[in-house]
Specification:
Elements: H1 7-20, H2 24-43, E1 49-53, E2 59-64, E3 67-71, H3 80-98, E4 108-112, E5 115-122, E6 127-135, H4 138-153
Parallel strand pairs: 3-4
Antiparallel strand pairs: 1-2, 2-3, 4-5, 5-6
Helix pairs in contact: 1-2
Length: about 160
């Protein structure tokens, strides 16, 4: 399935929109367009749910099955305070969506900007772990696409 995606093209396009977006909203709209055109439409994934609103009132940028994506403006994942805030925001969203601790492990949070970070619950340590932020590259974009595919098969 993933073989149908041109990872390099997706990477180039995401980097391009990250570099040219004037703000978070513009990046989110254009990155979602790239994900749809270069990934979702090519491998038959269900489109995400955008500006997904929780009963509690929080609003997530995009939900793909069990993958939650929070978009940030370029440069935000270079500042520790913004990274910590984005991580806490995603943890809150996952906790709301999962509802109970035993379901936390089903979810993956992604913070996407001109860099990328992944947030997941470590059941053994009973703690939230963040990997990254990493530069956008072939491996990190491939991991995002794999997660989107896996996230929908768990739904």
């Amino acid at each position: 399935m993933i073989e149908q995606v041109d990872i390099e093209r997706a990477l180039i396009e995401i980097k391009r929109v990250a570099a040219t977006a004037l703000n978070e909203e513009e990046f989110k709209i254009n990155a979602e367009r790239v994900l749809y055109n270069e990934v979702i439409s090519k491998i038959g994934l269900q489109p995400g749910r955008y500006e997904y609103t929780f009963i509690s009132g929080g609003r997530l940028d995009a939900l793909y099955g069990h993958v939650l994506i929070e978009y940030k403006a370029s440069g935000k994942l270079s500042k520790p305070s913004y990274i910590a805030r984005a991580k806490e925001q995603l943890i809150g969203y996952i906790e709301r969506e999962a509802q109970v601790e035993k379901r936390y492990r089903l979810f993956l949070g992604v913070i996407l900007s001109d860099r990328i970070a992944f947030v997941r619950y470590d059941f053994k340590a009973k703690d939230w772990l963040m990997r990254g932020p990493y530069d956008l590259n072939r491996e990190t974009v491939l991991r995002l696409i794999e997660a989107m595919c896996e996230g929908q098969t768990r739904s």
